[in-house]
Design goal:
MFS_trans_sf, 7 helices, transmembrane helix, MFS_dom, 84% helix, Growth Hormone, Chain: A, mainly alpha, 2 domains, single chain, MFS_sugar_transport-like
Length: 205
């Protein structure tokens, strides 16, 4: 959000940077409104996966746009792309990863540690946000705009993989039920590791 106007200035879009920032802010409201509807109808993991995919795609589009522009391609007919990409990212975050990360965390954590854990999570999130704000201009200046957005797309990809392979589905589950699901997954991983170790020992013998 801090660099919305600057991003539009760098992209040199057909829309003025100030107007672009206003549109993105409006899209954030739309994303938050969609979250109030979709959270009640869809599973948590489904929304998280869709959100991560959309955010990653928008970052990649932004990165490709800047890469081609830096290579001096004529992108005058694609001047609308940065606005669409940034608006799409804002909607995707507002309806998915933004609110659901904390909702899922509360549904996973035991009540006796939830308050402390969420406070620590907020400190980490704000700390990472501060680092991102400080690092973004450096990476953009030293390596190019496209590198910054490829890196952000990479973090979205890691979040997507974490959601698919680690995050449990918590909608409609009690904390006890969620813990049982996590323990079952952990047992399956342990059993698979044991089978691999047994096969390795057998082959060496």
């Amino acid at each position: 959000d801090q660099y919305t106007v600057i991003i539009f200035e760098l992209a040199n879009t057909s829309l003025s940077p100030t107007d672009g920032a206003i549109v993105v802010t409006a899209m954030h409201i739309v994303g938050s409104w969609l979250a109030t509807i979709t959270i009640g109808y869809f599973q948590r993991r489904t929304l998280l996966v869709i959100s991560c995919l959309m955010m990653m795609s928008c970052h990649i589009l932004f990165a490709i746009f800047f890469l081609l522009r830096n290579a001096e391609y004529d992108l005058s007919s694609w001047s609308w792309l940065p606005l669409v990409a940034l608006s799409g990212y804002t909607v995707a975050y507002g309806m998915g990863l933004g609110p659901l990360a904390f909702i899922v965390a509360v549904e996973v954590l035991r009540p006796d540690i939830a308050t402390l854990a969420m406070a620590m999570a907020m400190v980490v999130v704000n700390g990472l946000g501060f680092i991102t704000v400080k690092v973004f201009p450096f990476v953009t200046t030293e390596f190019g705009n496209h590198v910054s957005f490829f890196i952000l797309a990479g973090f979205c990809a890691l979040t997507l993989l974490f959601t698919i392979f680690v995050v449990p589905e918590t909608k409609g589950r009690s904390v006890v039920s969620t813990y049982e699901l996590l323990n079952r997954k952990k047992s399956e991983v342990t059993d698979n590791d044991k089978k691999i170790d047994d096969c390795y020992v057998w082959e060496k013998a």
